[in-house]
Amino acid sequence: MLSYTLRRILAVIPTLLILIVICFYLMRLAPGGPFTSEKPLPDAVMKNVLERYGLDEPLHVQLWTYMKNILLHFDFGPSFAQKDRTVNDVISHGFPVTITYGFWSAVFVLLCGIPLGVIAALRHNSFWDYTMTGLAIFSQIFPNFVLAPLMVLLFTLWLGLLPGGGWNGGQWAYIVMPAIALGTSYMASVARLTRGSMLETLNSPFIRTARAKGLPERTIIWRHALKPALLPTIAYMSPVFVYMITGSVFIDVFFSTGGIGQDFIDGAYSRDYSMLLGLAILYSVLTFALNLAVDLIYAWIDPKVRAGL
Amino acid sequence: MISPKKALSSPETTTALAEQMIVSRSFWADARIRFFRNRMAVVSIFMLFCLVLFAIFGHALATWSYEEIDWSLLGKIKTEGGPSLSNGHYFGVDELGRDLYARVVQGSRTSLLVGFIAAILAVGLGATFGAIAGYYGGRIDQIIMGAYNITLSIPYIIFFVVWQAFFGRDLIQMILVMVIINWTAGLLIVRGQVKMLKNREFVDAARMLGMSDFKIITRHILPNMLWVIIIYMSITIPETIMYESLVSFLGVGIQEPNTSWGALISQGAGTMTFGTLWQLAFPAIFFVIAQVSLYYIGDGLRDALDPKER
Amino acid sequence: MTRKSILLSALLSTTLVAGAYAADLPAGTDLAADQTFTYRVLDEFSSFDPQVVEDVEGANVVRDLFEGLYNQDADGNLVPGVALSHTVSDDNMTYTFTLRDNAKWSDGKPVTAGDFVYAWQRAVAPELASPYAWYMELMSIENASAIIAGEKPITDLAVEAPDDHTFVVHLSQPLPYFAKMVTHGTTFPSPKWAIEAHGSEWTRPGNIVSNGAYVLTEHVPKERSVRERNTMYWDNEHTVLDKVVTLVIGDDAQALTRYRAGEVEKTDIPAGQYPALAEEFPEEAYALPRLCNYYFTFNMSDTGPEAFKDVRVRQALSMSIDRNVIVDQVLQGGQFPAYTFTPAATAGFEVPDVAYAGMTQADRDKIAKELLAEAGYGEGGEPLSFTYLYNTSDAHQQVAIVASQMWKQKLGAEVTLENQEWKVFLENRGAQNFEMARGAWCGDYNEASTFLDLLTSPSGYNDGKYSNARVDELMTTAKSSQDTQPLYTEVEQILADEMPVVPVYHYSTNIMLKDSVEGWPINNVEQNWYSKDLYKVAGE
């Protein structure tokens, strides 16, 4: 397994290289540059600005300089939009924020979604099943841009319990609403997948064999059914966790958390090249790490998959 | 690769093998019967069908066109723009005094079309690649996972912007863009399932019998994980419907005065705290009907297609 | 020989009333115990560096942190800042500012003329590459353009400090509104020693040294910033607010909710919500005129459609826009229907009587139909169809939809709406890759030429490529003329006749401001506000 992990880690390097090259040229293909503005800069000023950031060099030279700076100095370049800061600055400040509420959101999703799904599956087509279904649908029909304003109206304006936004160093009162608003719709999906997967597992031959052997139902569920039944959910959660961090733009903007989801969008709109590249690399590494984690979990749960590594 | 021989000895394998034989024989016929026995699923199919009818013929009932501004209401929408039978705005008007009913009809067309086509294509593509990656593993797996990784990490806004600059805009471009960005949907889940299933005894057996990889995947692995794809699809279609509004917002998709559920819902949500709730409620109701129907159809199909549930 | 400026005599009288230009407290004001002012900003600031900052909100912070030669009062008039007064040479080309001797940086060092020389040289330095270097060019400082172009060293900038309290500027041409331009952040002094010690991180709290009424004490990007009273500030004793906090809230509706919850004391009003809020909070909702216009620009270059080359078509499209509907029923935020390019709020600008402004909409519609028929389009003629390009935004979309429906219903014109992402839009509009496009302009300084220069042939912002020799000539004359009104009137008349752009409305600023916050400069059309002029009263 160790050699497998190492091989996977080595395999990420070409992926990153390809990603950087694709992103780099894709961004330059996009009309407009970081300094295109409503009041176009006079030519001389534009020339100075481009020179200062090295944007006047041929593209492949810029790409080479960029890669060199990363390798030699771990320097991801300056931000063009936030002029007093570098990409390293912005990410080291925003990433902990995003990952913190992303983590709590994932905890919320799993702690609510999995039990919902399991109960619904065990009481298949019963009152419980329908109630869970209703709950799942209910949480899915409130996309976060509807749910978030409703929560703020309720908890901030009417009840005065929670602050309407901000981060304040990550105190729990500031995390609750972003985490729930971000997670709710995923929670419903997790519940559905878990339900489906649990039903699938409960009907599979080895559970039937276990039942035939007369094992108590509780043991069957906890010891035998749950682990394999959770595999699809785990596979589902890996990209979702990345989505939660990349796709948390709305949450970042709405709750003013200061996370990097907002930079990903702002960076795209303002053509903040180095910021976007830096974030793309970060996301790629994150995606890779989570995928690897999923594969290892699969291998850990299913001995046959492990043998196949 | 594990040796197929050692797996063939247990009694469980025999049962599974027998089951597999039945699956390949009468699988689809049985599934159809099982599906139509599920009442909720049938009702949902009917509801979805009604939505399609509404999208196609709904404009016949409208007294206003979807782009025409009711100048008499403009400026006092908050007080007089609500739903009313007397002025012909059954669902009220939008922020600019345009008939919401006609706009919901128009939006239903876009959303149903785009949502279904894009989601089905995206999940289909993702499932195919996931199956290939999971089944073959090794280098192929690494390449597909690399592509998956890159797709997830590319700044999608820039991608849309570049696409629009080079290929322009229309419905087909939009569907294409959405498939390209979302082809990873379901990939990981399918890959994981295939990875697990390919080591099951019945697959080994099939392999021993000299079946081709393609046949093994379609005949033996697919039926056992179809439920994942179906549930994933019923999750993805509503997501895609909402996603469409972002793509359009960035200029690749449909343009005003055309609209979609996603656009109507996000416009309605933007003003929901200001007392024009009907602007959110009506498009949302249609969206919810579609979503709930898909939910039950998805579950119905899951139950029906489960090779073990008979 | 120099002569005293008019400003100076006005200033002398004000300096006698000590501190009359700081927070102006009426006698018996009951001040709130907590003098903390919290307001909402939309985005993270571009910078706190006076020479680098680009965005409006950033400039507002910079005006609190740093103080330039002059400040503006509540009506937008000049009042002394670091400079007490100035004199102008007879040829109007040399300005000599006298600086106060009690101005200090937050680290206790005195503010000297040398700090201004350093800052102004910095603003044009190619190495710093400030995007706002164009502002220094606009100020017509001698050699500025050559330095920006890299042809001369920065030391050639024609600014000098004969002694610590005298700052002299030489211009390359007379500029009647030069003195007004020194209230802009780009011209504020900067602390050489701090910049050299900390490099690009000199604006971080703890590193920053500033000479304004406040110092930056906390900054969490994309979340909040805090600035607190600068005890070294020369007029600190008249500053009332102790602490000013900005919260970044990206969503208008959410900002309003948090305003209602009392988390912020000032926020922007979401589009279209002014009437309802004005009714609910009559004391807190404001619609203030603003120095910005909104227009549709025809592409009159070779790439533009044939129809737009016909003045009658342009006239017809302009006439058939019911500006009152757009202003009163769509935007509903106290905007002003526009028939001229320059907003009425512009200082010293008298709105000329252009013919179509005085007509009823019914008359305008009738003339529009006739003109279009004469030109051979519309009913009975060639169908008129074109594409209107705008950038993605709800407000622009609303205007686009309403206008296109007006054209469709009144003139039978088929208008295709096309929205594009902001930078794509700018590229296409700048490259004349459009038929009709949205345009808007906010004044860089409070004078009509900031608007009208836009439509001259050499202007880099003239996206429609309109060109009229007479307009060019009039605007050149206006640069050095003492009486500009007749010139501007003639330009506006030409624009109304030829209609190269369709003026739609002039902006207003819609804000919510808590009752307890006093001293807001509601009459300042540039909305340049200073926290040192604000105060909070007790009780509610």
From TrEMBL, chain A:
Q: Which UniProt keywords apply?
A: Cell membrane, Membrane, Transmembrane, Transmembrane helix, Transport
- Look up keyword Transport and say if it applies: yes
Keyword Transmembrane helix on this protein?
yes
Q: Do you know which InterPro entries this protein is assigned to?
A: BPD_transp_1_N, MetI-like, MetI-like_sf
- Looking at the record, the residues that make up the ABC transmembrane type-1 domain are 95-294
Which interval of the chain is the signal sequence?
none
Q: Name one Pfam family in it.
A: BPD_transp_1
Q: Which domain of life is it from?
A: Bacteria
Q: Where in the cell is it found?
A: Cell membrane
Please report the record's description of how this protein sits within the membrane.
Multi-pass membrane protein
Q: What is its main location?
A: membrane
Q: Which residues form a coiled coil?
A: none
* Membrane-spanning ranges: 9-27, 101-122, 134-160, 172-191, 233-255, 275-301
Say which family it is in: Belongs to the binding-protein-dependent transport system permease family.
What protein is this chain from?
Oligopeptide ABC transporter permease OppB
Lineage at the top is:
Bacteria, Pseudomonadati, Pseudomonadota, Alphaproteobacteria, Rhodobacterales
TrEMBL record, chain B:
Q: Which domain of life is it from?
A: Bacteria
Q: What is its main location?
A: membrane
Does Transport count among this protein's keywords?
yes
Q: Write out the transmembrane intervals.
A: 41-62, 112-136, 143-165, 171-190, 216-235, 277-298
Topology relative to the lipid bilayer, per the entry, is: Multi-pass membrane protein
Domain annotation ABC transmembrane type-1: ranges:
108-298
Q: Which Gene3D superfamilies match?
A: MetI-like (1.10.3720.10)
Q: Name one Pfam family in it.
A: OppC_N
Q: Where is it localised?
A: Cell inner membrane; Cell membrane
Keywords of the record, alphabetical order, are: Cell inner membrane, Cell membrane, Membrane, Peptide transport, Protein transport, Transmembrane, Transmembrane helix, Transport
Q: Which InterPro entries match?
A: BP-dependent_transpt_permease, MetI-like, MetI-like_sf, OppC_N
Family (UniProt)? Belongs to the binding-protein-dependent transport system permease family. OppBC subfamily.
- This one is known as Oligopeptide transport system permease protein OppC
UniProtKB/TrEMBL annotation, chain C:
Note one Pfam family from the annotation.
SBP_bac_5
The record's listing under InterPro entries reads:
Peptide/Ni-bd (IPR030678), SBP_5 (IPR039424), SBP_5_CS (IPR023765), SBP_5_dom (IPR000914)
As for subcellular location, the record says: Periplasm
CDD domains assigned to the protein according to its UniProt record, in alphabetical order: PBP2_OppA (cd08504)
Q: Where is the signal peptide?
A: 1-22
Per the record, the coiled-coil ranges are none
Organism domain of life: Bacteria
**Similarity comment text for this entry:** Belongs to the bacterial solute-binding protein 5 family.
Q: What is this protein called?
A: ABC transporter substrate-binding protein
